[in-house]
Amino acid sequence: MSESEVGGLSVWNEQLRGKNIQGSTRVPVREIIDYFQGNTKNLRGLDLGSGQGRSTKILKDSLIGSNITALDLSTEGLALTETKNRIQAKAEALPFEPESFDFINVCGVMTNLVGETEEEAKALRENVLTGLYDVLKPGGCIVISDFGAEHLLDDYNVNYKRHALITDEQGTIAVLKSGETFVGKSNEEIAAMRGTDVIERYAHHYTPRELAILLQSTGFIVDRYDVEIAQTPKGKKPIENIIMLASKPANST
After folding, report:
1. Phi and psi for 203 in degrees, rounded to 5?
2. Could you give the residue ranges of the DSSP H alpha helices within the chain?
3. Are 135 and 93 in contact (CB under 8 A)?
4. Are strands 238-247 and 44-48 parallel, antiparallel or unpaired?
5. Residue 15: what pLDDT?
6. Spatial distance between the Cα atoms of 145 and 206, rounded to a whole number of angstroms
7. Which end of the chain is more exposed for a tag (fewer CB within 10 A), N or C?
8. What is the C-alpha radius of gyration for the chain, rounded to an integer number of angstroms?
9. Per-residue confidence (pLDDT) for residue 116, from 0 to 100
10. Cross-strand partners of 71
11. Domain 3-151+205-247: which CATH class?
């Protein structure tokens, strides 16, 4: 599969079964192939947060001979996902035996791990990664592809300090309904937006250091990372995409 078929911006309008499946972050197949030195036959992979099957399809088409399990909360999304193994479950409550997978793909999932407080959000992220560490085989790898918060390569304009007035965490933004902005509002007025219907959801953007520390704290060894240009799900604005590969020590028990 060519780079144009798996890159963030270029897969935005990829069609699966007649559906417009949004694909804002790159599915990191190149990193997985390189990690296993091109030999992907008979590998077992987990596609965490598979959505409507875009990432699962790319993994299946690119990692020849691998067996991909798709996991998502959405039954509708799983029904569209073209793979034999489809599991409905939460990321923080994985229904798998320890050491079940050779690799794990986490594409556009970490951004959704948020909470009512910073402490709650961090505990959720650690819980999810601890569970992923347990179901990964020793010597296996996890690849995370998600939104960055440093914006060294793009001109994405977000005031994280003002968003934190609502979200209580630096790096976590409040995604506002169409037409809503912070323009002309005082800090007090912005803080008062918390819990109202003008907020669609929360999303977290990571710095590479933050993501690396999180992985290391749960036992992983960070092997490499890259920063690329991707696209926001809302507004189609260029934003940085962190792709980080980490491994589970081969001597792990």
Report:
1. -145, 140
2. 3-6, 29-35, 54-62, 75-79, 118-135, 160-167, 187-191, 208-217
3. no
4. unpaired
5. 36
6. 11
7. C
8. 18
9. 87
10. 48, 87
11. alpha beta
Candidates 109, 205, 114, 115; CA nearest to 151 is 205
Q: How far is CA 72 from the centre of its chain?
A: 12
pTM: 0.89
Contact indicator for 49, 107 with CB cutoff of 8 Å: yes
**Residue with structure tokens 């798996």?**
6
**In whole angstroms, what is the distance from residue 182 CA to residue 68 CA?**
42
Question: What pLDDT sits at residue 21?
Answer: 41
For tokens 């409507």, what's the residue? Answer: 52
User: Is residue 206 packed enough to be buried (19+ CB in 10 Å), middle (13-18) or exposed (0-12)?
Assistant: buried
Which residues, 6 or more positions from 67, have their beta carbon under 8 angstroms from its beta carbon?
A: 42, 43, 44, 45, 85
Q: What is the distance between the alpha carbons of residues 59 and 42, in angstroms, rounded to a whole number? A: 13
pLDDT for the residue numbered 165 = 96
Task: Specify the amino acid at residue 173.
Answer: I
3-state SS assignment for residue 107 = strand
Angle of helix 118-135 relative to helix 208-217, nearest 10 degrees, comes to 60
Domain ranges for the chain:
3-151+205-247, 159-204
> Does residue 1 carry a pLDDT above 70?
no
What is the reported pLDDT for 137?
98
User: Three-state DSSP class for 9?
Assistant: helix
Please report the pLDDT score of residue 32 as a whole number: 97
Helices marked H in 11-117: 29-35, 54-62, 75-79
Residues 6+ apart with CB under 8 A from 174: 163, 166, 167, 193, 194, 199, 202
Residue 219 has pLDDT above 60, yes or no: yes
